[in-house]
């Protein structure tokens, strides 16, 4: 009980000094709990939506086996309308109805503005059914009664200020639907951001599915007392041959829909937890420093405790109990802050267009448990080493003014281990850069990053002794005696300086690494674009979301003047049989012969122009080597949805590229000869070459031709490069924003170290003031000490990060990203910003030091 009382008294006696460490624990736990609450809430929202929209039993077409890498033709797979009648006759079926649904649509208003979701959610078109009433209710107007009427969801109407009678045009693979809004339907559950439009059944079948006798699915409602599983069996019996169908209960339909969202949610969840882990790692440095300094300041107190009979275990336990108090307080506050963070993220997503209602806020019992356990365990573990050092304080320490005993042997062992790990990590990074395959080099890169990080942390005190002296010679000596005092203070305890700098090092190393990788990716892609792309313009779906270019948009492009040629680019699924007898599913690029000028490809054998001849094709170098294919061989090509052909291999293309690596080419007329027109896929992308001297006119004309189709965009090469830079820049900004949490914790560490250092040196500061050091000089000394520690951490972090980034780029060069670019403006900006971070961190400690009463400071024991 005495140990508990002592620990509690010490904790509350130093509550101000503990505050910043508690903030570090709070931030880390808040990020973990906020991530868990946010993702759990998203899961709850989607679960409710999927459960509400799923029928008791749903009959869907069994998707044909195909390569997931290949696009479809924009037309959904269907079930025959006759299946509705057969399902309705099933025992226990109260009703059955055909459902039409397609996400391959774009809805625009009369000004050709896209009415889709602003959050990246899908635009879904379908028919208004009884099953839709499970999740929606008609709030105004009436359901569509013919091809000129459409109904929209209330969220879309609110976002785009739509009202009854407004004109909408729905662009589909089978043509446009022009209609006026006849009704508005409101979701009974939260709509996370999809835009939904409804048509009458006949219009939906014809325009969305391509025929009046097919549906996307059949929804079957059970009679009272009939379970979904029993109804599923009965419907299967009524349908007879179910080889072409897949039957799902309501629970199975909801689970299937959830699975399609699962990967997106998991990636977001684990990415955010990863950054929370980085913040926890940085927080460990802060906690270790805090307790090391508190133990050092209480050396005489601990010596007295030992002198009056306290054992080493009791002293050790006393420090760990203080850490336990800190962990409990910080974790409890962190759990509450995590819930607030989750609500803030929901509001942010709402501003971006993804609606998440706070009514669905989900705080699972595991979330606070995880937060508390994580925060407490991390805090206690971080305080273990300082607690051990406290236990080694001898009773004689009560008789002298001394710090905790220095363990020179432990320092030497730590430095030796750190050097070994650093050398091992450097060797792993070097080996990664020399790997022949990316899959072989990736584990080496990961090991190199881990070992060098741990190694740098371990040799931090050794590096501090050297690097701080060099920095001082450059930065501090110009400030005269005050600068030398700041240097001595920073070197007084290299272990403390090393730990404080290492906390900042971790976040900045990741920033530098990602900056190098991102800049190298942009530079590599830009070089490849300049080298390989000869087209003046590229037409593709906006945002590169994998959609296809509908035929009516392609036809509009073909009417544009001042165009030398327009190249269509489709990907046709096929089953290829090589001369060695092996058969594989592949995608053939069916393009116009002008594509060879739009995207330049080198060949290792044959001429690419010949591959666009009648019944000819090309194969990639890797495929040719694997299957021993040579120019002149015949390939058996079974086109998906079409006939089988014997195509002659006229060229083998080099795979030393990023664009179309491994692609196999055929003339688009060859594909059209063996694939029916209604089965031939739509264009994935299109290329255009302007007539000489008419580039500006052609650019404007292409944009004008696509004005009615806002889901597509025209880009020249400059636009394409800018888009690439923007995409990678936005991704890096998100990452930097998340890493800012770790950097904030590191800044708190600098503040805490300086604050405790000022308390530790109270008497010394009083003596310096007594012999003539002014308040201004004192504040400057502390600020300079803070700056040099921050710059020390920045140098380590940026140097380490650039090493990681360089190794990563060399590995990515095996995948075609062959240009290494160091973003010096970013690196220099971060370095300079680190000095300002040091100045900012020193503001409060310097101010408090300057306000010390000289006599009281001298009298401090």
From TrEMBL:
Coiled coil: none annotated. Keywords: Cell membrane, Membrane, Transmembrane, Transmembrane helix. The keyword Ligase does not apply. Pfam families: FtsX, MacB_PCD. GO terms for molecular function: transmembrane transporter activity. It is a multi-pass membrane protein. It is found in: Cell membrane. This is Putative ABC transport system permease protein. It comes from Streptomyces atratus. The lineage of its organism: Bacteria, Bacillati, Actinomycetota, Actinomycetes, Kitasatosporales.
């Amino acid at each position: 009980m005495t140990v508990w009382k002592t620990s509690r008294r010490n904790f509350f006696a130093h509550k101000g000094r503990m505050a910043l460490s508690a903030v570090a624990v709070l931030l880390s736990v808040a990020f973990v709990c906020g991530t868990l609450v946010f993702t759990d809430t998203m899961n709850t929202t989607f679960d409710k939506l999927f459960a509400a929209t799923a029928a008791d039993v749903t009959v869907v077409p069994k998707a044909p086996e195909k390569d997931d890498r290949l696009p479809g033709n924009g037309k959904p797979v269907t079930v025959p309308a006759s299946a509705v009648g057969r399902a309705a006759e099933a025992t226990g079926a109260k009703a059955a109805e055909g459902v039409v649904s397609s996400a391959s649509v774009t809805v625009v208003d009369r000004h050709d503005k896209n009415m889709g979701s602003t959050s990246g959610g899908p635009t879904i078109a379908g028919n208004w059914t009884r099953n839709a009433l499970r999740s929606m209710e008609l709030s105004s107007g009436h359901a569509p009664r013919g091809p000129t009427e459409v109904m929209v969801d209330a969220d879309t109407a609110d976002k785009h200020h739509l009202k009854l009678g407004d004109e909408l045009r729905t662009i589909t693979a089978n043509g446009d639907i022009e209609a006026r809004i006849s009704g508005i339907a409101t979701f009974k559950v939260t709509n996370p951001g999809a835009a939904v439009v409804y048509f009458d059944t006949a219009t939906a079948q014809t325009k969305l599915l391509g025929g009046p006798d097919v549906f996307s699915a059949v929804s079957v409602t059970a009679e009272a007392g009939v379970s979904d599983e029993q109804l599923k069996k009965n419907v299967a019996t009524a349908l007879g041959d179910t080889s072409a169908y897949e039957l799902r209960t309501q629970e199975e339909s909801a689970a299937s829909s959830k699975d399609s969202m699962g990967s997106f949610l998991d990636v977001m969840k684990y990415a955010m937890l990863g950054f929370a882990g980085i913040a926890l790692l940085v927080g460990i440095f802060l906690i270790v420093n805090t307790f090391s300094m508190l133990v050092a300041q209480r050396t005489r107190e601990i010596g007295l405790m030992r002198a009056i009979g306290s054992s080493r275990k009791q002293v050790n336990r006393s420090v760990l109990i203080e850490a336990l108090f800190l962990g409990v307080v910080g974790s409890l506050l962190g759990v509450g802050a995590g819930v607030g963070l989750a609500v803030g993220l929901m509001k942010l997503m709402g501003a971006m267009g993804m609606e998440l209602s706070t009514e669905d806020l989900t705080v699972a019992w595991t979330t606070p448990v995880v937060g508390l356990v994580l925060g407490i365990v991390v805090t206690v573990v971080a305080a273990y080493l300082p607690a051990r050092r406290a236990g080694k304080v001898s009773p004689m320490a009560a008789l002298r003014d001394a710090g905790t005993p220095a363990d020179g042997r432990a320092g030497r062992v730590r430095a030796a281990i750190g050097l070994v790990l650093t050398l091992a990590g450097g060797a792993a990074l070097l080996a990664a850069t020399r790997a022949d395959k990316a899959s072989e080099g990736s584990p080496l890169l990961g090991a190199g990053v881990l070992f060098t990080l741990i190694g740098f942390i371990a040799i931090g005190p050794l590096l501090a002794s050297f690097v701080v002296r060099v920095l001082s010679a450059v930065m501090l000596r110009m400030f005269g005696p005050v600068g030398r005092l700041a240097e001595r203070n920073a070197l007084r305890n290299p272990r403390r300086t090393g730990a404080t700098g290492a906390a900042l090092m971790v976040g900045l190393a990741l920033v530098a690494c990602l900056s190098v990788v991102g800049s190298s990716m942009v530079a590599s892609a830009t070089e490849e674009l300049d080298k390989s792309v000869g087209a003046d313009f590229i037409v593709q779906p906006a945002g590169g979301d994998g959609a296809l270019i509908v035929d009516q948009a392609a036809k509009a492009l073909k009417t544009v003047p001042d165009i030398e040629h327009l190249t269509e680019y489709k990907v046709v699924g096929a089953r290829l049989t090589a001369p060695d007898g092996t058969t594989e599913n592949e995608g053939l690029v069916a393009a116009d012969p002008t594509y060879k000028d739009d995207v330049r490809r080198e060949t290792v054998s044959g001429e690419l122009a010949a591959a666009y001849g009648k019944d000819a094709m090309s194969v990639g170098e890797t495929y040719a080597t694997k299957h021993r294919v040579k120019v002149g061989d015949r390939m058996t090509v079974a086109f998906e949805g079409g006939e089988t052909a014997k195509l002659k291999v006229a060229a083998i293309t080099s795979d030393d590229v990023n664009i179309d690596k491994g692609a196999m080419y055929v003339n688009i007329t060859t594909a059209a000869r063996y694939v029916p027109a209604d089965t031939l896929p739509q264009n994935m992308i299109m290329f255009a070459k302007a007539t000489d001297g008419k580039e500006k006119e052609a650019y404007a004309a292409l944009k004008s031709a696509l004005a009615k189709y806002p889901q597509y965009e025209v880009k020249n090469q400059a636009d394409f490069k800018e888009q690439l830079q923007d995409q990678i820049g936005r991704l890096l900004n998100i990452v930097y924003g998340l890493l800012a949490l770790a950097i904030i914790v590191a800044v708190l560490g600098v503040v805490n170290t300086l604050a405790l250092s000022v308390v530790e040196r109270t008497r010394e500061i009083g003596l310096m003031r007594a012999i003539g050091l002014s308040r201004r000089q004192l504040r400057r000394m502390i600020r300079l000490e803070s700056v040099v520690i921050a710059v020390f951490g920045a140098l380590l972090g940026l140097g380490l990060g650039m090493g990681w980034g360089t190794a990563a780029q060399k590995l990515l060069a095996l995948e075609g990203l062959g240009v290494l670019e160091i973003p010096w403006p970013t690196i220099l900006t971060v370095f300079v910003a680190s000095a300002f971070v040091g100045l900012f961190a020193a503001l409060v400690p310097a101010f408090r030091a300057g306000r010390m009463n000289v006599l009281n400071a001298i009298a401090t024991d």
